[in-house]
Structures are given as structure tokens and as C-alpha cells.
Amino acid sequence: MKKNVPVSSIMTSNVIKLNLTDDLTKAESLFKKHHIRHIPVVSGNHIVGMLSYTDLLRISFADAIDDDELEVDVTVYNMFSVEQVMARNLVKVSPDTTIKEVAEILSKREFHALPVVLDELLVGIVTTTDLIKYLIDQY
């Protein structure tokens, strides 16, 4: 297995993002349309939080809706803002953080995605799925 490989080699750099002012209906739509589980929340290009699909499940019955369905019942979503639901105290990594270091962070924490930042600007996201795909490619 290769050593000291930077996370930039496996991260997603074309990141689907939410703005702090977006609503949860938009978030639900993005999760379903792009088949993703984590969306960084930005103010400009500065990351201010991370919203996961699990965060939405905690406040709604989103899992009761067919994954192919883009329409959702927005009643619950209108009661909360992205800012109220997102995770705020993020662990961030830089593009040159090694894949091993990322794996160690994710294995010890209760989250499954890390924003990748350079000079405080969001440049990517790395998830446990990215790590699994990397490991599969090693065999």
C-alpha cells in the first residue's frame, strides 16, 4: 500500500454546497438528486458547517420518501433553518493531509465526512466512501 498519499488524490473537488441562507427543502433535493450524504455549508467560499442526510432524518420523516422522489413535505423543513440543523464544530483537513491521517480521524469520530480547506477556503470533501474506494483500488 502506498504511504503518505495526500487526501487531495481521493477527495471530491467539485463539491455540492449549500449557502447558509438556503433552506432545508433545497438540501433534501440536493441529497436525493446527487445521491450524496454530506453537504458543506458555506458563507461565500468559507465553510461554516456541514449538513448530513442523517441531520435531516433526525427532524423529519425524509426516509419515508422514495429516494427517487424529489418532492418532499416541507412542513417540518420550514420550522428549521440550515444553520440550526448543521454541525458547526468541524474538523477540517488540508489537501496535503495524508489519507492515513484522514482515516485515523474518521475512525475515532462520529462523523463520516471532512471538509478539505486551503487558506480557510473550501476546496474539497472527503468521506468514508472515498476511503473505502481507495482501499478497494489497492487490491
Automatic annotation (TrEMBL):
Domain CBS: 11-69, 86-139
Protein's UniProt keywords contain Disulfide bond: no
Keyword Amino-acid biosynthesis: no
SMART domains, sorted: CBS
Coiled-coil segments on the chain, per record: none
CDD domains with a match to the protein in the record: CBS_pair_AcuB_like
Keywords: CBS domain
UniProt-recorded name of the protein: CBS domain-containing protein
